[in-house]
Structure formats: structure tokens, C-alpha cells
Amino acid sequence: MSDDASTAEEIMAGVYRALREHGYADLTMQDIADACSKSKSLLHYHYDTKEDLLVAFLDHLITTFERRAEAGADRPATERLVEFIAWFGFDPDETDREHFHIALLELRSQGPFNDRIRSQLQRSDRVFRGTVAEIIEQGIAEGTFEPIDVQETAALLVATLDGARTRQITLDEMDVDGDTYTRTVARTVIDRVIDPMLAEGVKLPDVEAVEVLLPRDEPVSVAPADRMNGRST
Known about the structure:
Number of strands: 0
Structural class: mainly alpha
Radius of gyration: 19 Å
């Protein structure tokens, strides 16, 4: 790995940790520098402003998701779709993930006022919906899913799951049985949307079992050096 790529990865991991710890509103370049053990001047060498760095971080998160989705493209569509659904869920004791998603929600709230952030959010939505659509199309081709309106179903799934995560982190929402809101919605989506799509005799993997296997690591390892304003160290 080149020094540029290594530096970029360390900076992206630092943004992740700093957002998790400080949130978006109070985040400073010094907080990020401390989180990645780099100097503030080094960050400004690669990114002129905090906005530049956060826009690059959003791009990095989306690219991470795209590459993980591509890496699993040879697996059965049923496994891939359940994994996508499970990816949105988290437990009350996963405080680091919750704090990070709260910070992301703060950052997303800037979309109506910031063209660059809004552009990344629009890209994220396209990638999520596109990934689900591609999985459903794969399942139809495999004969595991019945033919349905692919784009409409993809849009419904993404809106429902993303809305559930937002509701859980903003309202601390739990269902009547004490489970997290995201888990409850995930099971409901599978029961009401995914199960009716299945061809006769096809079974889905268990969502809780899939959640155990999902990566919970920091979003690193996919930050090429050219994310850093085209500059070199």
C-alpha cells in the first residue's frame, strides 16, 4: 500500500472516530487530527476545509458500501437481500454505532443547505436503491424471487429501513416486546414484503443469524489517495 493511500485510510478512520465521539455540530479539524494521530496542518494540506474533508468522508462511506456489495455479488440473492436488511439494525448496547449514526443524521440535515453534501446524499440513495434492485433482479433470474416491480420494491425497502434507523436513534424507539425498532421493522419487512416475493419452496436465511456475521469495523481500507484533492504527501 502506498503512503498516500495509508494516510488517506488513517484520516478517514479518524473522521469516523471523531464523529462518533464529538458529533457533527461540535466537530473540529483538531478533533479529527487527534483521532487519527495526525497534525492539523497535515489535514489542511490534504483538505482545505472541514467541509472538504466531510464531503470526502461521505464519498468514502458510499464507496465502502459499493465495494462490499460488489464483493458479495456471487452469493445467492436471498442471502444478499437479508444481509442488506440486517445491516440497518442495531442493538441498544451498540452505543458506538448509535453515536456515529446520530452524527451522520446531523450531517445529513445539512443537505437542504449545502449542495455538495446533498449531492453525496443523492448518490447514497441511488447506490442503496440500485443495490437492492440489482439483488432483486438477480433473484428473479435465479428463480428464487417471483417477478415484481423491481424499482418500486427497492425504493420501498430503502425508505422503510432508513426511516426505521432514523426513528430509533432520534426517539430511542422500542417495540412492545422490548426489541429495537430497527429489528422489529426488519422482521416485518421480511414477513410482509420479502416472503411474498419468494418462489415456491425457497427459504430465507435467519435475519438474526446474518446480523452476527455482518462487519462492524471502522469504514477503512477503501480510501484511495486521489480522494485527497489530488495532492501527495
